[in-house]
Amino acid sequence: AGDQNLFTSLYPTLSQQLPREPMEWRSELIATKICLCVCLLLEKNCLLKLFRMSDLMIHHFSSQDTEVYKTTVKDDITKWQNVLKAHNSVDWLIVVVESDAKKKNKTNILPRTSIVDKIRNDFCNKQSDRCVVLSDPLKDSSRSQESWNAFLTKLRTLLLMSFTKNLGKFEDDMRTLREKRTEPGWSFCEYFMVQEELAFVFEMLQQFEDALVQYDELDALFSQYVVNFGAGGKCL
What we know:
Layout: H1 4-17, E1 23-26, E2 31-34, E3 57-61, H2 66-86, E4 92-98, H3 100-103, H4 114-124, E5 131-135, H5 142-179, H6 188-204, H7 208-230
Parallel strand pairs: 3-4, 4-5
Antiparallel strand pairs: 1-2
């Protein structure tokens, strides 16, 4: 969200650098190192599938003018966050892009972080880490690289948190669906697709033991239904 032209200009660097540092991810059975990749989504589909459940909503802008913030940016962020709340999306990050070229035209009366402070006060409450500064991202300098490193670390952390949380919710919803298997209209085939998707995700993460657990559970459930059908029970 926000300045999409700005984000599009940052995307090539982001997509190259984000996967370079692996992050540790731990399941119930084992810990592993995974590399996170980024996919550019300018339009949000809020009906997420498990393969896309690590989505992180990001709002970008580059203005250092407090008046512009008051009259335009603040309202844009407010509308953006209202949309997220409407869809129960709590994984978000506001990125303030600073550049020396724009700062040279400013006086030193106001502190550099005044815009960031306003955003944190207006939107972040106790989540001050949900607003980060990216300094001169397209410039070849040590300051720019340090800024990128801090931004990428934050992004990796939030993406992994989002993935882990949503994975847990997906598993809880799957168990709830499984518990309804004695109710009229319950379909084993539909349930199979849900748990198979979870197994696919574990395979992508090279968590083969976790994936095997999902297939073993499906095998046991299928065997149970075959026995029940043979005894005159309902079909699949």
